[in-house]
What we know:
- The protein is mainly α.
- The chain is 80% helix and 0% strand.
- The protein has four helices and no strands.
- The longest helix has 30 residues, at 2-31.
Amino acid sequence: xxxxxxxxxxxxxxxxxxxxxxxxxxxxxxxxxxxxxxxxxxxxxxxxxxxxxxxxxxxxxxxxxxxxxxxxxxxxxxxxxxxxxxxxxxxx
Length: 92
């Protein structure tokens, strides 16, 4: 169970960072300032921050028209949930 808790904490921290990144990028877009590259937003989403990415997309209405943002975030969410479920099953 310790591994599962650790993984969930890591996912939560990365998701909070990713949510903040989506908000910052939306703010920068409105101001015409230098943006966070899409590959960074997508990479963080796929590597543990899918929940934050999906929340950032919906809360800030940011990048919602790009199908590949939806795809990467949903695929990231699926594999991250899969790891959590696998760890939970192995802990039984």
